[in-house]
Amino acid sequence: MLGAAVLTGLPMTASARPAPNRLDLERVVIVMRHGVRAPLSGEVPANTRTARRWPKWSVPEGHLTPHGAAAMRLLARYDRRWLAPLGIARCPAASAVRIWTNTAERTIASGKAYAEGFAPGCTMSVGYLAEDRTDPIFEPLRAAATAFDPKQAIASIDHVTGGMDALVARHRPTIALLERVLGCGGGGACSPAGPATLTPSADGHGIDLTGPIRDTSGIAQVLLLQEAEGMSRADVGWGRADPATIARLGALHAALFDVFTRAPYMAAHQAAVLGHRILDRLTAPDAPRLDILVGHDTNVTALAAALHVDLDAPGFARNDVAPGGAIVIERLRDRRSGARFVRLFYRAQPLAAIRALRPDVVATPIAIPNCAAPCPLNQFVDLLGSRIAAPSTR
User: Fold this and answer.
1) Is the pLDDT assigned to residue 267 strictly greater than 60?
2) CB-based contacts of 246: which residues, under 8 Å, 6+ apart?
3) DSSP 3-state assignment of 161?
4) Helix or strand (DSSP H, E) at 363
5) What is the C-alpha to C-alpha distance for residues 256 and 40, in angstroms, rounded to an integer?
């Protein structure tokens, strides 16, 4: 485990940069995935075959579990310790700390659990839009927040992936592993085996994916959630999915982001409103010292893609975001020159720690391509700003 000092005292890589003890932490933005949830409706395709029934969950579809809430409180307590240099009061003022979540139950409940862990016994507001509204920060395509062109999106995705058939072919060995875990027997595939297609959505605001990656990604995620929830070893993949297998299968879920967030065009639009929010919080004179955004894995991976970085945490496939996993963006000030810098981390609990509800947290420094560490604030603003789409004027 990396200690709290990791986030506030990394050695610098260039002698021209200020020494770590000259950098004061001024502001922080945290872009976080919600905690452990029950499977979503349709996440396991209806025609998936298994040898036995899927285990039951204690909460409705898509809801944060009590175990997931407990893990979020542990993350918040960890964050509170390393955020001490911000000088936040024990019961933070609304002007100092803001928590904003998407409208789904799992994101709202995650934000509230995080607030409980961050400031026990205090009343912290958690903000979100009404359930019948679409928040463009977290769901920019659905909100039609940018001038999204699905044909351009598909061309960008095909260029990066080589096309859907090529993407499926690269993951055939992992799909075969998933078939063994499903263990349906009797011949034929256990998971659906339809053609791989990528087409514009009916409303023109997104893209639709069919085929093996769409179908197996959800199954792989459900198996990971079983592990994270702490289900018995006999229930996690019916006893056929140990932690190493879960990590390998996570590549199928990460492959979904190769389609929906990793290509430059998709990253630009998926991270557009979120990215502008981050830049505002880093530069506006009256921004809160700590801004916490609780959304989904698509939000975290879209931001990572816009920054051209990968995300790794113990127990997870590369770019398969951990429940509660977050990109942390720090703004620092050189106390001698007054110059401001940005530093990034991927903060996550290892999968084993989420399962056991241990307070272990890994904070991995993120090297920003084309920007020396620490990255000058104005250079970071220009870099991220150049990679995100402007809000639509439609």
Assistant:
1) yes
2) 223, 224, 227, 236, 237, 315, 351
3) helix
4) strand 362-366
5) 16
As a whole-number percent, the residues of the chain with pLDDT over 90 amount to 91
Specify the 3-state DSSP secondary structure of 346.
Answer: strand
- Which sign does the torsion angle of CA 223, 226, 227, 233 carry? negative
Of 383, 328, 336, 387, the residue nearest 4 (C-alpha): 328
Q: If you count them, how many residues does the chain have? A: 394
Distance CA 179, CA 196 (A): 18
Angle at 258 between CA 256 and CA 261, to 5 degrees: 90
Q: For residues 291 and 295, give the distance between their C-alpha atoms in angstroms, rounded to a whole number.
A: 13
Write the single-letter amino acid at 229. Answer: E
Cα(342)–Cα(333) distance, integer angstroms: 9
Rg (CA), the chain: 21
The pLDDT value recorded for residue 187 is 78
Return the SS3 of 138.
coil
**CA–CA separation, 39 vs 35, rounded Å?**
12
CA distance 269 to 114: 28
Specify the residue for token string 């690269």.
Answer: 170
The three-state secondary structure class of 348 is: strand
Q: Answer yes or no: are the C-beta atoms of 31 and 390 closer than 8 Å.
A: no
| Nearest to 28, CA basis, from 274, 272, 292, 286 | 292
Q: In whole angstroms, give the CA distance from residue 371 to residue 268.
A: 19
- Checking if the pLDDT of 243 tops 50, the result is yes
Task: Taking the CA atoms of 144, 150, 156 and 158 in sequence, report the sign of the dihedral they define.
Answer: positive
Closest CA to 295 of 324, 318, 320: 324
